[in-house]
Amino acid sequence: MEIASLAKMIDHSLLHPTMTDIELMKGCELARKYKVASVCIKPYAVKMAAEWLINSEVLVGTVIGFPHGSSSISTKVKETEQAFADGAKEVDLVVNIGKVLSNDWGFIHSEIQSIIEITHSKKGILKVIFENDFLPNDDYKIRLCQICSALKVHYVKTSTGYGMVKGTDGKYSYQGATDYDLELMRNHCSPETLIKAAGGIRTLDDLLRVRSLGVSRVGATATASILGEASTRFSN
């Protein structure tokens, strides 16, 4: 039962731009094997994933405005409509990060509202990605939590996993889901708005740690090793 509940915390991520159709299919097979909550797959492959996962309890999810959030609202609306038409049940929306940093909260409210209205009409699930690595202080994150809670967004999510920040040495890196941000988001969202951690969840201990912080879902590529480790640990 413990392993099954942990599996239902995982959105198996199939988003890397180099992944081939064969790799995507194998990823869906792995998700079916472990009975995870969902796959989060590249948008063009939603229809294929829905076919691969037919008669499975694994939901099909995809991304909107990924990874930079810079598409127009109308484009994000069309992406969302297409995703649900192709068989998605969940969508992960990247907010317009430049607008967040411009404090254009009216725009952000309108953007999220446009997508949540479609999602509710399709009886789907919306997760809003903040991309915390790009946000220099807590005020932006708190305001996003407040807007998402008011609009009854299902999940708020830390990161895309691709939000690389250029350091002074010219190299790119990111922190992803930090404990600090997860606690901040949990404390500033309504109880009904759940938390998804993405970026750096690679081990069973990572999963258990973020669960203890109030996280309900994680995005992960290391699904097999995490649940394999869980099987070994909790079977003994």
Briefly say what this structure is.
This protein has helices at 2-7, 21-34, 46-52, 73-86, 97-101, 105-121, 138-150, 179-188, 204-212, 223-235; strands at 10-14, 38-41, 59-64, 90-94, 125-129, 155-157, 165-166, 172-173, 194-198, 217-220. The protein is an alpha/beta fold and 236 residues long. The chain has an 8-stranded parallel β-barrel with strand order 1-2-3-4-5-6-9-10, surrounded by 6 helices. Strands 7-8 form a two-stranded antiparallel ribbon.
CATH architecture: Alpha-Beta Barrel
Provide the CATH topology: TIM Barrel
- Major β-sheet strand ordering: 1-2-3-4-5-6-9-10
Number of helices: 10
Rg, Å, rounded: 17 Å
The largest β sheet comes out as: 8 strands, parallel, barrel
In terms of DSSP E residues, the strand content is 15-25%
Q: Assign an overall shape.
A: globular
Mean pLDDT: 96
> What is the tally of beta strands?
10
* Helix and strand pattern: HEHEHEHEHHEHEEEHEHEH
CATH class: Alpha Beta
| Domain tally | 1
Structural class: alpha/beta
Give the helix/strand layout.
Layout: H1 2-7, E1 10-14, H2 21-34, E2 38-41, H3 46-52, E3 59-64, H4 73-86, E4 90-94, H5 97-101, H6 105-121, E5 125-129, H7 138-150, E6 155-157, E7 165-166, E8 172-173, H8 179-188, E9 194-198, H9 204-212, E10 217-220, H10 223-235
